[in-house]
Amino acid sequence: MINSSFKVLVYWCAFALPFGIYTLIAKNVDFTLALGNAYTLPSAIARPAFLAIVFGVTALLVIVTFLAKSAQSNKR
Amino acid sequence: MPQEETDITVDRFGYKQELRRVLPLSFLVFYGLAYLCPVTVYSTFGLVAQQTHGMVALSYIFALIGMVFTAYAYMRMVRAYPIAGSVYSYVQRSINPHLGFLAGWAILMDYMLLPMINYMLAAIFIKPVLPSVPAWIWIVGLVATVTVVNYIGINLTAWASNILIIIQMAFVAAFMIVAVYYLAHGHGAGTLFDIKGIYNAAEIAKMGWSPLFLGASVLVLSFLGFDGITTVAEEAIDPEKNVGKAIMITCLGAGFIFIVVAYLLQLAWPDGWLHFKTPDSGAWEIIVRVTADWVGVFFTIIYVIGCFASAMASSNSAARLLFGMGRDGVLPKPFARVHPKLKTPTFAIIVMGIIGLTALGPSLALAASLINFGALAGFTMVNLSVIAHYYHRHKNVVGSTLTNLIVPLIGAVVCYIIWWSLSPASKCLGFTWLAIGVIMLAFKTSYYTELPPEMKFEE
What is the 3-state secondary structure (H, E, C) of B269-328? Predict the structure, then answer.
């Protein structure tokens, strides 16, 4: 199933990674999130949380793809 | 009432025909228009008029061109897969089952939250008319009504949509007649034909073209909803032909209405964009100027009707998407439950009602952000599905390189560019939702080493 995890990785990278990199570079972008009528998540928390999600999921998918490839090679 | 047909089934996709197949082409178009909410043109006019220096109609033309590519992609995919899962089914079957889940997961956000935003908007609009009634009473009342109508059956939903759309169209037509009369009698621009209602060379020389494209990225969201027709494919008569036609008619028809209304609003008050008290009420200020103060109250009522119709159609569509995912075992099995007599996915409809009640909590901006993110991510994937299905897998057996590769590629690029222009907050929240989907899918399929349940069954 290397094909599937690789495709999910490509999908994730095509959508999430460019914006993740942009967020990393452009430090002045405002990420303040209005979560409710009375509650707002400040940019100082939202920005690092978002970067952790983007790069964390990318790392997870790279590892899964790599492990699937190794398992496939061992089978052969 | 259209006669029920039982000759067309979904057997070839490994499913049983469980929903009631009763919707003809005209009902599908009305359903799409109800979902899309034609009076939405009035809510975005003021904001975009200020952005584009009075060239809203031109921005609508750009937005329509962008959306027609995606409407065409939906038309092609529904011919290949006339089943209820929409984007989820198309990507799952044409590209990859895991990606299908993620595309469905992304657009699920759009479908699940659109009813909620409609409940919120209806409550906001009705508040000034009846200030003594608290907003939560309106929200609970609207959620209960929509849930009951959708629970009873697709026939009732379709008829209710038809009536509500006729009321909205009557208002739009009445406005057009009054505006034409107003212009013909020398008011506003004083003429019915003025290129400045669409294109103003002097303003473009000052500001360039980019505000027009920015305006188009806002206006494109007025078109969200034509895709909802695909979710009732299993209830449509002759879905391979009619659903695709209905999508194209809805997209082009709505685009035509938006362009004409924006043109007339612009001519009725040519430099109005410089004088609006607030951008959100720009169209309302023009309507009151062209007609009378009391029409403003009537306009509010029409807007509430539009929100109600859109909530009904979008809630119904979301229930069909949940039903499709439940039937495939991607979501818990109760989502696939169909009422034996009413032939509606009752559990999914009730869940949508409960989600609708959350309109009492989150902010409008949050819900709108998530809707836009999900819709545009889904639209991009539908365009790519056409390439995967018709160009890559079937090697142009149906269509040509132009229709199977170039047109959907343009559609995907347009959607991707608009998606990129969404606010950082939209993307932040959207990716958080998508990350939840990636992790959930990883656990469900043993880190992508197993196929999702439905594909196992087929193979």
Answer: CCCHHHCCCCHHHHHHHHHHHHCCHHHHHHHHHHHHHHHHHHHHHHHHHHHHHHHHHHHC
